[in-house]
Amino acid sequence: MEKRLIELALEALELRRASIESEIAALRAELTGAAKNARSAAKAAVPGKKRGPQSKAARKAQSERMRAYWAKKRAEKKAAAKAAVK
After folding, report:
1. How many CB atoms lie within 10 A of CB 68?
2. Which residue range forms the structural domain that includes residue 65?
3. What is the pLDDT of residues 45-74, one digit of tens each?
4. How many Å apart are CA 24 and CA 18, to the nearest integer?
5. Model confidence, pTM
6. I want to staple 58 with a disulfide (CB 3.0 to 4.6 A). Which of 8, 41, 54, 81 is the partner?
7. Going along 43-82, which residue ranges are E strands?
């Protein structure tokens, strides 16, 4: 009797596992499909949108930000190379 009960429990669990796996597969398919659709919808919503002209002050501010960004990157790379040599 106990063996039969365990067999029934296993069958029920396997059915639930199959159901859960199919739901996971459906959600993954929906997620990848949704991501593709969102990208294509975003492209279709704003076809050929270009940015307006930047003011001289905005260009200068952006230039300074990028100069600081790359200086930081160079310093990090130099520090990493120095640490690797030790």
Report:
1. 10
2. 55-86
3. 555 667 788 999 999 999 999 999 999 999
4. 10
5. 0.40
6. 54
7. none
